[in-house]
Amino acid sequence: MNNKYTKRTFVLEIFALILGLIFLVPFYFVIVNSLKGFSEILIDAAALPREWLFSNYVKVWDILSFPKAFWNSLVITVLSNIGIVIISSMAAWKMVRTPGKFSKILFIIFVSAMVIPFQAVMIPLVKLGGTLGIMNSIHGIVIMYLGFGVPLSLFLYHGFMKTIPVEIEEAARIDGCSPFGVFWRIVFPLLKPITVTVVILNTLWIWNDYLLPLLVLQDASLRTIPLATSSFFAQYTKQWDMGLAALVMGITPVIAFFLILQKHIIKGIASGSIK
């Protein structure tokens, strides 16, 4: 195997480095300006702060009641992920293990739902939510996230499920294991790579989502972090110093979560695409 370091490799590495720095530029602007005063941001947004105002974060913590907004985002994200993983994994397992016309049609329906834009169902969704009495509630928005999150998650589980040998399940049934036990004791532990992928993708989406919480959660005590942060950007006033500090506080947990588990994304998707 030829491992010789060539000029082409060097050029590609330089190009990748430059591309990486370009992607980091927005983070630089957000972090640096979150530590400035409002007037200093307007004078020169690219310069380092003359005075590092860490007090911006303290003010944001108090103004937004940040622990409450963080808790709301955390509860919605965790409950939605749990529901999406349970429904998608079990549905995909049943479809793969009982092949037939009905399973194929059902899978096509789920996959087709992925291409429907949210804006197309936004108004009917709000009307239906009002009729069912689930508007302005945590459990209501979790139910809606289940509806929007299951199609893609089921698609990923469906592809990965084909890589699991059916002989393992047959051996468990011979030993007297029930269908429920076969899935949770045998199959589900083998789905760890794709489960981590599903959780990461849905966490990034749900944690940063703005439009659905804006439509569903009218009560100030139910605001998520994106909704709370938007209060600094009204029609006539924009508090960039406070808003950027709130943005940093909001994205830090999910970025840390992503960096810890990112290696599982490629592994899970690549494994699911084998067959």
Question: What attributes does this structure have?
Answer:
275 residues, mainly alpha, MetI-like fold, 14 helices
Mean pLDDT: 87
Tell me the span between the first and last alpha carbons: 28 Å
Number of helical segments with 4 or more residues: 14
CATH class: Mainly Alpha
Shape: globular
List the domain count as a whole number. 1
Rg, alpha carbons: 23 Å
Largest sheet, if any? none
> Which H/E pattern describes the elements?
HHHHHHHHHHHHHH
Report the CATH architecture. Answer: Orthogonal Bundle
Provide an overview of this structure.
- The protein has 275 residues and is mainly α.
- It has a single domain (64-272), classed as Orthogonal Bundle (MetI-like fold), CATH 1.10.3720.
- The longest helix has 32 residues, at 66-97.
- It has helices at residues 7-33, 38-43, 55-63, 66-97, 101-113, 118-132, 138-161, 166-174, 179-190, 192-208, 211-216, 225-229, 240-261, 263-272.
Q: In short, what is this structure?
A:
The protein is mostly helical. Helix content is 75%, strand content 0%. The longest helix is centred in the first third of the chain and has 32 residues, at 66-97.
Write the layout of secondary structure elements.
Blueprint (H helix, E strand, L loop, with lengths): L6 H27 L4 H6 L11 H9 L2 H32 L3 H13 L4 H15 L5 H24 L4 H9 L4 H12 L1 H17 L2 H6 L8 H5 L10 H22 L1 H10 L3
Helix pairs in contact: 3-13, 4-5, 4-7, 4-10, 5-7, 7-10, 7-14, 8-9, 10-13, 10-14
